[in-house]
Amino acid sequence: MQRTADPIKKLAGFTSVLLLAAAEAMAQDKQGQSGRRIVVSIPDHKLAVLESGRVVKVFATAVGAPHSPSPTGSFTIVQRIPDPTWYTKGRIVPPGKGNPLGTRWLGLSVKGYGIHGTNNPSSIGHAASHGCIRMRNRDVEELFDMVEVGDPVELEGERTEETERLFAPAVATVAQAAAPSMAQPSALGQMVR
Fold first, then answer.
1. What's the pLDDT at 6?
2. 80-135 pLDDT, tens per residue?
3. Active-site positions?
4. What architecture is the 2-174 domain classified under in CATH?
5. 3-class DSSP state for residue 9?
C-alpha cells in the first residue's frame, strides 16, 4: 500500500507545481490587457480597484500585523478560489463559518499570500493579519467577481502620490460633510456664522 501512495503523492505534487506555473504564466500574459489593477495602501488599510486609471471601488481591509507584515511590491493574481479550504500546520479547516480565509481566496504571485475574506470581521481596518490582505466576506465576494487571474496588484507599504490621490479624497470628503461651513444661509435667508 505504501509503494502505491508514494508515486501518487509525487504525481500530485508535480501536478500542483505545473498548475501553479501555468497560472503564473497566464497571469503574466494577461497583465495589462484589461487595464484593471488593484492598489492596496497598507498604511491606510484600504484597497482600490482601478479600471483604465479610474477608481471603480474602494474597500476597507486588514493588513499584516507588525510581527507578520504584508509584503510590498508588484504582484499578480494567480488563483481565484471560491469557498477555500485553509491548510495550516497539522490542521485542515474546510469551507464554512470557522474558516479564517472566509468565502473567497485571491492568491498572489508571492507564495503564501493573498487577498481573502475572514471569519473575524472586527479585524478590518487594523494591522491584524499574518501578512495577507483581509476583507469582509461580502466585500471580497464583490471583488472576486470584478477581477481575473493576471490582474496586477500593487501593495504599497508607504503613502505615495497615488495612494494620496486614491484614498485621501474620501477622507477629506467625509470630514467636509461632517463639519459645517463657516457661513451658511439660514432658513430665513440670512448668513449664519
1. 61
2. 999 999 998 889 999 999 999 999 999 999 999 999 999 999 999 999 999 999 99
3. 116, 132
4. Beta Barrel (2.40)
5. helix
| DSSP, res 155 | E
Q: What angle do CA 13, 19, 21 make, to 5 degrees?
A: 105
Domain ranges of the chain: 2-174
- The DSSP code sequence of 54-120 is EEEEEEE-BEEBTTBPPP-EEEEEEEEEESPPEEETTEEE-SSTT-TTTTEEEEESSTT-EEE--S-
- What distances in angstroms separate CA 138 from CA 37, 61, 78, 148, one per listed residue? 20, 12, 21, 18
Q: Helical H runs in 110-160? A: 137-146
- Cα–Cα distances (Å) from 19 to 14, 15, 40, 66, 78, in that order, read 9, 6, 27, 33, 10
Of the candidates 25, 46, 73, which has an alpha carbon nearest to the alpha carbon of residue 139? 46
- Fill in the DSSP letter of residue 35: -
- Rounded to whole angstroms, how far apart are CA atoms 167 and 161? 10
Q: How wide is the angle at C-alpha 133 spanned by C-alphas 89 and 29, nearest 5°? A: 100
Please state whether the predicted TM-score (pTM) of the whole model is above 0.85.
no
- What does the alpha-carbon distance between residue 185 and residue 193 come to, in Å, rounded to a whole number? 9
Alpha carbon of 112 to those of 2, 32, 81, 122, 135: distances in Å?
Answer: 30, 23, 14, 23, 17
